[in-house]
Design brief:
The chain is α/β, with parallel strands linked by helices and 454 residues long. The chain has 2 domains: 2-101 and 316-408, 3-Layer(aba) Sandwich (Rossmann fold), CATH 3.40.50.720; 105-311, FAD/NAD(P)-binding domain. Helix content is 32%, strand content 21%. It has 16 helices and 17 strands. The protein has helices at residues 12-22, 43-46, 53-56, 58-66, 85-88, 118-125, 149-159, 172-179, 201-206, 226-234, 236-249, 353-356, 362-381, 395-402, 410-425, 440-448, and strands spanning 2-8, 28-34, 71-74, 94-97, 103-104, 116-117, 141-145, 185-189, 213-217, 258-263, 266-274, 277-288, 294-303, 307-310, 314-315, 337-340, 343-350. The strands form 4 sheets. It has a 6-stranded mixed sheet, covered by helices on one side. The protein has a 6-stranded parallel sheet with strand order 6-14-7-8-10-9. A hairpin with a 2-residue loop joins strand 16 (337-340) and strand 17. Helix 10 (226-234) crosses helix 11. It starts with a strand and ends in a 6-residue tail after the last helix.
Length: 454
């Protein structure tokens, strides 16, 4: 059976789902991978800190998938605006939504609206064209709420010097802002204990690799109840995290110009302001409650900080024409099928963070994509998929061109990639692998301009 499938979102979730579909041996499946940005790779390109090239190496495996002939990338297209879900039904047997989660959950404490979401800052330093081009980094003392990898990334970027990051792919506007960064002290806050931190051990160890940074933990914060000990025994990564944190707690402050303090058992309860300025953050000390959780002690501490970031989770945004759960910020589903008020939305599927929420690592994304694509294939075998009006593979291209949509392609990514690598090689102070192009229209132009043959 020959099938055409539209996958919406060219991050890891969408690419893994696409790969599983085109590798299916029982059906001849062709996938069009739609992406809102001019370039693919989603949070791997725009959500991983620039000084973590190891993680960005995942792009290499994703690149191999996008090189496959049964997969076509169509970028710079906003589904729901440039083309609707209902219109796509006329061109495809099935639609898989994998638009991820890039917006921040709100910090719901007094003064929380003055705090900056992690995604905003990550979008800035990763050169995402949808976010700010410059950043106010005048605060000398900064609070970061959260004890996960995103909080680690933010704290590390704030504590590093701009020149330390000049070897990475950051564009000039990001370097200019980071070079003016005045932060000397970063406080990270988590309401529970070390065993409940969501770090990965390697990221936690890397936090202390810079010569300009010292990481400190209060020895009083190294505490475990029975539930914590059980977590350590059951999960090697948690145990390794605890070991690293214990090492940080045994050291004395040195003369490193930047300090990152990781605080446990401190729950932020208020961002303190005077007029429009942040002057501090108030936390309540927590203690074990004897039932595997923590409770407040009624003891409060005011920490003098001039800026607050919250890394408490991302949230997905609705896709026009698709059911959406506004409380959980996901598309309602049964593990793969999109569910509306009357049950399964015909031939509409979901995978990734917009399916299950912003939790889990790459391995979870792969298994998630398999669950969804298995459902799609089973529906195809049962004859339950949509019957599109248009069977010509290029019919959708005709619609995009009729609407004058400046879509980008996989060949266009190669041109944009080449342009960014050339900009990196031209850096006079220190040539590097690439320098990101930030402006949206510049990215589109680079991707769509075919070099003239002499």
């Amino acid at each position: 059976m020959s099938l055409r499938v539209a996958v919406i979102g060219a991050g890891p979730a969408g690419i893994y789902a696409s790969d599983l579909l085109i590798r299916n041996e029982d059906h001849d499946i062709h996938v069009d991978l739609f992406e809102q940005m001019p370039a693919p790779f989603g949070l791997i390109r725009y959500g991983v800190a620039p000084d973590h090239p190891r993680i960005k190496g995942i792009v290499t495996s994703l690149h191999r998938v996008l090189d496959k002939p049964h997969l076509r990338l169509l970028g710079n297209i906003e589904v729901g605006k440039d083309v609707t879900i209902e219109e796509l039904r006329d061109y495809y047997d099935a639609i898989v939504i994998s638009t991820g989660a890039v917006r921040d959950r709100e910090l719901l404490i007094p003064g929380g609206d003055t705090s900056i979401g992690a995604g905003e800052f990550v979008g800035f330093y990763d050169g995402n064209p949808r976010f700010e081009r410059s950043w106010n980094l005048q605060a000398r003392e900064v609070a970061v709420i959260g004890v996960g990898n995103v909080a680690l990334d933010i704290s590390r970027i704030l504590a590093k010097t701009g020149d330390e990051l000049l070897v990475t792919e950051i564009p000039d506007n990001v370097h200019d802002s980071l070079r003016a960064n005045r932060a000397k002290v970063v406080h990270m806050f988590g309401r529970r204990g070390p065993a409940n931190a969501k770090f990965t051990p390697k990221e936690l160890r890397e936090l202390d690799e810079s010569d300009t940074i010292q990481v400190l933990v209060d020895p009083e914060d190294i505490d475990y109840d029975q539930a914590s000990e059980d977590l350590r025994r059951a999960d090697k990564s948690i145990d390794l995290n605890c070991q690293v944190l214990e090492q940080y707690a045994m050291r004395e402050p040195d003369d490193s110009p930047h300090k990152i303090h990781i605080h446990f058992f401190e729950e932020p309860v208020e961002v303190l302001t005077e007029g429009d300025a942040i002057v501090g953050i108030r936390t309540e000390r927590q203690e074990f409650d004897g039932e595997g959780g923590v409770r407040g002690t009624g003891s409060f501490t005011d920490w003098p900080v001039q800026q607050v970031y919250h890394a408490i989770g991302y949230r997905s945004e609705p896709v026009e024409g698709v059911p959406f759960d506004l409380e959980r910020n996901v598309i309602p589903n049964d593990g793969g099928h999109v569910l509306g008020e009357e049950g399964f939305e015909d031939s509409l599927y979901v995978t990734g963070w917009i399916k299950r929420g912003p939790v889990g690592l790459i391995g979870n994304t792969k298994s998630d994509a398999k669950e969804t694509t298995d459902m799609l294939i089973a529906d195809a075998d049962a004859g339950k998929l949509n019957t599109p009006k248009h069977t010509d593979a290029d019919a959708i291209i005709g619609l995009l061109e009729e609407r004058n949509i400046a879509y980008t392609t996989w060949d266009g990514w190669y041109r944009l990639d080449e342009a960014e690598r050339a900009l990196g090689a031209e850096c006079s102070r220190l040539p590097r692998e690439r320098k990101k192009i930030v402006e949206w229209e510049d990215m589109v132009e680079r991707a769509r301009t075919v070099p003239q043959v002499p």
